[in-house]
Design a protein that fits this description.
The chain has a six-stranded mixed beta sheet with strand order 7-4-6-5-9-8, with no helix packed on it. A six-stranded mixed beta sheet has the order 16-13-17-21-20-18, with helices on both faces. With about 400 residues, it is of the alpha/beta class. The model has no long low-confidence stretch (mean pLDDT about 95). Helices cover about 15% and strands about 30% of the residues. It starts with a helix and ends in an 8-residue tail after the last strand. It binds adenosine monophosphate and magnesium ion. The site of adenosine monophosphate has 18 residues, from helix 3.
């Protein structure tokens, strides 16, 4: 049996980043940029007002206050989208709206709240009382303050955020080059499985794995394709697994243990190649990996939590590598165990658990029973607490490494 690290290495050795594609910027959220993006304009493109108010010359406002305002003529009224026609001369002001270009001659903007329009609503031809002094540059947003023309603003390898999409739009990019979402085929196996809109008869259960895996694929940035269930015979399994080459990855669940009808490994070695089929871990030792028609193939175990843990450890990093991510794994934290944990085998344990953060750091407690058939404790978990090989016991109060399931990557 190989270790979790060996298995992960073997998986990633076969996985390549997919070729980039051009897509509409709204389809790039959370994906990895495949090009550097530079700006064809300054942003802001011109000096503009940060306030609704009056463009002034600071020298005219010396000594101005609430009690002793300076009264000045208003020579023009400039709305956002308009362009000032007149320069502001000594002893003059221009009424200006947020985002409008600052007229020549003005060196500050006074917000409207510190003024009082005396005639004609403060528009051109009227006068205004200004009740404050101003500093040079006050309330003026400078040209190029955010981005300078020619600057590389977004770099290949960055993950696209909503703000990045706003920047792309501001830089005039409708489409950009991005790494694709891997298309992942999902195949549940088992004669006992019925569709989720059926009431399970005697000996039957609903196929939940196809859906938990599809959700994990979505969360990892992939595109799930749920294929028909493969029944527990070679012909049916072969027919469905042969479709692997239509996709970037194929994931099956079940049919990889030692049962009489576990045919996935036989079919895999028959129509593809098998790299490994067992990993020293719990839950879910029968993790199978290989290729079919050049497509990487994951044969995850059938028990609902073994399936999900196998996905976390092996399939998720593969999807992220294909998608161009640099960080493939979830963040981990060190946490203090809230109770003793007994281990029945020498394998690495991944315990479904809940992390909480206190003043002295993280504490971790099991989120319920650890049977691999149970999904409720997986649902309640926000981490997988990893208990190393070699230990037969992890003591309350000892520190363990926890893989966080609640965040994708980044600082904690
Ligand atoms: P297997 O590895 O095929 O023997 O499956 C192990 C256990 O997981 C059995 O109890 C199966 O009934 C269960 N199981 C397998 N596939 C699914 C599935 N798609 N949805 C829910 N449970 C499953
Ligand atoms: Mg089965």
């Amino acid at each position: 049996m190989i270790t979790v690290e060996q298995a992960r290495e073997a998986v990633l050795a076969r996985i390549d980043r997919l070729s980039a594609e051009q897509v509409d910027i709204l389809d790039t959220l959370g994906r990895v940029l495949a090009e550097d993006i530079s700006s064809d304009v300054d942003i802001a493109p011109f000096d503009n007002s940060a306030m609704d108010g009056f463009a002034v010359r600071v020298a005219d406002l010396e000594g101005a206050s609430e009690d002793s305002p300076v009264i000045l003529p208003v020579i023009e009224h400039v709305a956002a989208g308009a362009f000032p026609q007149l320069a502001v001369g000594p002893g003059q002001v221009t009424r200006i709206m947020t985002g409008a270009p600052v007229p020549e001659g003005a060196d500050a903007v006074v917000m409207i709240e510190r003024t009082e329009s005396l005639e004609a609503g403060g528009g051109a031809g009227g006068t205004v009382a200004i009740k404050t002094t101003a500093k040079v540059g006050e309330n003026i947003r400078k040209r190029g303050e955010d981005v300078r023309k020619g600057d590389v603003v977004l770099s290949a390898g960055e993950v696209v955020s909503p703000a990045a999409i706003g920047l792309m739009a501001a830089m005039g990019r409708a489409k950009v080059s991005i790494y694709p979402r891997p298309r992942v085929a999902i195949v549940a196996t088992g004669d006992e499985l019925v569709a989720i809109d059926e009431y399970p008869g005697p000996g039957k259960i609903r196929n939940s794995n196809s859906y938990s895996i599809a959700a994990q694929v979505l969360a990892a940035g992939g595109e799930p394709h749920i294929l028909p269930v493969a029944r527990d015979n070679e012909a049916d399994t072969r027919a469905i697994l042969s479709r692997a080459s239509e996709f970037d990855l194929m994931v099956t669940t079940g049919g990889v243990s030692m049962g009489d009808f576990d045919v996935v490994k036989d079919v895999l070695t028959d129509i593809g190649t098998m790299d490994f089929w067992k990993v020293a871990m719990r839950p879910g030792a029968p993790q199978t990996y290989g290729t079919i028609g050049g497509t990487p193939f994951f044969g995850l175990p059938g028990n609902p939590t073994s399936t999900m843990v196998g996905f976390e450890l092996f399939v998720r990093p593969a999807i992220r590598k294909m998608s161009g991510f640099v960080t493939l794994d979830r963040p981990t934290v060190q946490a203090v165990l809230a109770h003793d944990v007994k281990k029945k085998s020498d394998r690495r344990y991944f315990l479904r658990a809940r992390l909480t953060k206190g003043e002295d750091g993280y504490t971790v407690a099991l989120s319920g029973s650890q049977s691999s058939a149970l999904l409720t404790s997986m649902h309640r978990a926000n981490c997988l607490a990893s208990i190393p090989e070699g230990l037969s016991f992890a003591e309350k109060g000892s520190t363990v490494t926890c893989i966080r399931l609640d965040i994708e990557e980044g600082v904690q």
